[in-house]
Amino acid sequence: MADPFTRAIEGDPLLRPVLKDWGLAYFHRANYADSLVKLKAYLDNVDANDDACQVAAGWCHLRMGEPQRAWDTFSDAMALKPQSAGPLVGMAASAMALGRPDEARGLLGRALALVVSWALTSSCTLSCSAVLWMVTTL
């Protein structure tokens, strides 16, 4: 049974979006199990199509040693936003954990292509350099 504070948030439609922030806060404190509970509650009760929330849930699964569940969650996020590099990077990390390095390289290459394309049309290059580093270290 949830504590009164949690019940109050989950019971009020105006407060439910806080579940995502709460889940992300737990993630950053390396409390992945509680993070998943909050992120899943957000996805179930607020926005099932939130790709960023799906990606965060995927990283929780990966950090908890559940690479197949992580793969599935990142794949769901990819279906929601196919032109996003975030789910591809998560899928690559999952592929590595599942012992599929060639698949991971291919996914990172796709992520890099998306990020480079995006960087050429915007002012952000930080993500591009991060993905490039990952591709060259595999």
Give a quick rundown of the structure.
The chain is built from 8 helices and no strands. The protein is 76% helix and 0% strand.
Roughly what percent helix? Answer: over 70%
Structural class: mainly alpha
Low-confidence stretches: none
In round numbers, the mean pLDDT is 85
**How many extended strands?**
0
What string gives the helices and strands in order?
HHHHHHHH
Whole-angstrom Rg: 16 Å
Biggest sheet, open or closed, and with what strands and sense? none
The percentage of residues in β strands lies in under 5%
Intertermini distance: 44 Å
Features:
elongated, 138 residues, mainly alpha
Task: Show the helix and strand layout.
Blueprint: H1 4-11, H2 18-28, H3 32-45, H4 51-63, H5 67-80, H6 85-97, H7 101-120, H8 126-137
Textual characterization of the structure:
This protein is mainly alpha-helical and 138 residues long. The protein has eight helices and no strands. The protein has helices at residues 4-11, 18-28, 32-45, 51-63, 67-80, 85-97, 101-120, 126-137. Helix 2 (18-28) runs antiparallel to helix 3 (32-45), helix 5 (67-80) runs antiparallel to helix 6 (85-97) and helix 6 (85-97) packs antiparallel against helix 7 (101-120). It starts with a helix and ends with a helix. 34% of the residues are buried. The mean pLDDT is 85.
